Amino acid sequence: MVAENVKNIRRQISEVCSRIGRDSKEIILIAVSKTFGSEFIREAISAGISDIGENYVQELQRKQQELEREPIRWHFIGHLQRNKVKYIIPWIQCIHSVDSLRLGEELSHQAAKHNRTLDILVEVNTSDEESKFGVKPEQTIMMVKELLPLNNLNVVGLMTIGKFPENPEDSRPTFQLMRHLQQQAVRDGILLPHLSMGMTNDYHVAIEEGATMVRIGTAIFGKRNYQH
Ligand SMILES: *Cc1c(COP(=O)(O)O)cnc(C)c1O
Fold this sequence. Notes:
Blueprint: H1 2-20, E1 28-32, H2 38-46, E2 51-54, H3 57-66, E3 73-76, H4 85-88, E4 94-98, H5 101-113, E5 118-124, H6 140-147, E6 153-160, H7 172-187, E7 194-196, H8 203-208, E8 213-216, H9 218-221
Parallel strand pairs: 1-2, 1-8, 2-3, 3-4, 4-5, 5-6, 6-7
This protein binds pyridoxal-5'-phosphate.
């Protein structure tokens, strides 16, 4: 099931890319495995996935231990509390949800202890009241500039969570806003190569608007059951 889903999504990503003249190699497919056990992640790895996204520190720690030998790049995509940074810092590849200087400072500080440099993205709150997290669009460039001097972080891009639209077209203005922020950064001399946007419902639209990382859960692993 998982293997077939991954194949199907890869095909769709290729189709979108060839339609709009992008190279599908630019798109990093992150399989979002929250609530699914390690056996599902193993299936995804067998199907060629190497990037896994998780939302919760404890759940991520458990799976990382279970899958220590697998060649996985772990992405943290949920809200991250500063006091939990230390648990994931030795092996996390990329944090998508940085929305304050204090969190950035803690990440840089802990990364320094482990002699490593971490990729981060600034989370942009594009839906106002619906999400408590992320910086306002108009504050995004300023946040990027504050994070840039931190020694052990690479600010590689911007991330947003769309509005869980019924119609994927409803996400397009949000994704366009993200692209405009990326272009605004370039005008200020800051290269932000990555846009992390697009989920099961709207990743096609996100790729059309410049996404380089799509975060897909349901279409790979099936519907989530939060009881377990
Ligand atoms: C759960 C989650 C996803 C995956 O959502 P699907 O709709 O299942 O593809 C992507 N990004 C974030 C931040 C998530 O929390």
